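Checklist before submission:
- one chain only
- standard amino acids only
- sequence pasted in full

Submission:
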Amino acid sequence: MNLFPDIGFRLLNGWIYFAFYMIVFIITMSTCSKDVRKRLYDRSSWDRKTKRITALGKTFSFVNIIMILFGALQIGNIEFFIGNLVYLIGLSLLVISILNYRNAPSGKPIINGLYKISRNPQMISLYILFTGMILTIGSWINLNFLFVSIICSHFSILGEEKALIEQYGESYINYNSQVPRYFIFF
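Returned file contents:
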């Protein structure tokens, strides 16, 4: 691992992984109705603080994505092979969590599939996926940017949970008490 990725315009850069992720994501989202996509990205009930923290996290994510796109793949390094495995796990979990979301009844908290073990499986999946991409380019700075994005996302998730409690009331509070926010005990 290097502090910074080897940035340049090459055929074998991180863009390959990002492009594949985007293709899979677009295909998966195309199976969702317009209503499901709207619910998935509805931020109208968030307060100003949550929106600001989310914007900060997205800024770090954007810079991270740019460096991934132009970062040279570290083919042959152990991190590259581990990164491929982590990437595929994250991508698979993301597809499954989106399909779980799509198949859940509207008007109720989503409690099926991966949502039985995590209240935020899509976020967890994305961060696993991005960790895999970062490992394939072997960059510590990208891991740090990802860490900042994760911290900002935590505060976004807190805002989202507040809105979900207002929307669903007791049923969401019960769900919160039974399922961890992230995974196992987090």
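Reviewer check: The helical segments are 15-30, 34-40, 48-70, 78-103, 121-137, 140-168, 170-178.
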